[in-house]
């Protein structure tokens, strides 16, 4: 039976960079971005969303409907996979969990990897990333979201009885962190 790992982190910690470095050396593991699959579903369901960063502003009913369909598609894949996702979605001052307890009941996930970095490094990376439209935030807002995210993944891990791995992506260390992800996948997937 294929195994799945949720990979999440503090937004701007370098998760996408790490996954692209991981994928260059690791061909047997599928990497699926939940937001990308949700965007495909939203387009199919004519939700009038043209930008992935706008998914988080859909109303609660629509986002749940789209996410449930996206997760159903991802969970049906027949390969070991890393699911690239967010623990929470920030909407102004409001945080929305990345998964409901109902959705967790249908997920067959074997581990969670959380990627983090210092708040200062995250601010530098966000400012340098012209591909995303993120709100400008200071260290206290980043620390707040990190705390929310860690609470959420702790709840997920407790509910599913799975381990959490926390990896720190310091500046210039992304290749080392990708190697750490490779070690974790070998442990979880048995490859």
Structural description of this entry:
A hairpin with a 2-residue loop joins strand 4 and strand 5. This protein has a single domain, classed as P-loop containing nucleotide triphosphate hydrolases (Rossmann fold, 3-Layer(aba) Sandwich). The chain has a five-stranded parallel beta sheet, with helices on both faces. Strands 4-5 form a two-stranded antiparallel ribbon. The mean pLDDT is 87. It is α/β, with parallel strands linked by helices and 191 residues long.
Task: Give the helices and strands, then pairings.
Layout: E1 4-9, H1 15-25, E2 30-33, H2 34-44, H3 60-75, E3 81-84, E4 88-91, E5 94-97, H4 101-106, E6 111-116, H5 119-128, H6 139-160, E7 164-168, H7 174-189
Parallel strand pairs: 1-3, 1-6, 2-3, 6-7
Antiparallel strand pairs: 4-5
Descriptive key words:
191 residues; alpha/beta; Rossmann fold; 5-stranded parallel β-sheet; 7 helices; 7 strands
Mean pLDDT: 87
CATH superfamily: P-loop containing nucleotide triphosphate hydrolases
In the predicted model, the low-confidence regions spanning at least 5 consecutive residues are none
- Note the main sheet: 5 strands, parallel
Structural domain count: 1
**Can you tell me the overall shape?**
globular
Instruction: Bin the strand percentage.
Output: 15-25%
Measured between the Cα atoms of the first and last residue, the distance is: 13 Å
CATH class wording? Alpha Beta
Q: Give, in order, the helices and strands.
A: EHEHHEEEHEHHEH
Short précis:
With 191 residues, this protein is an alpha/beta fold. Helices cover 48% and strands 17% of the residues.
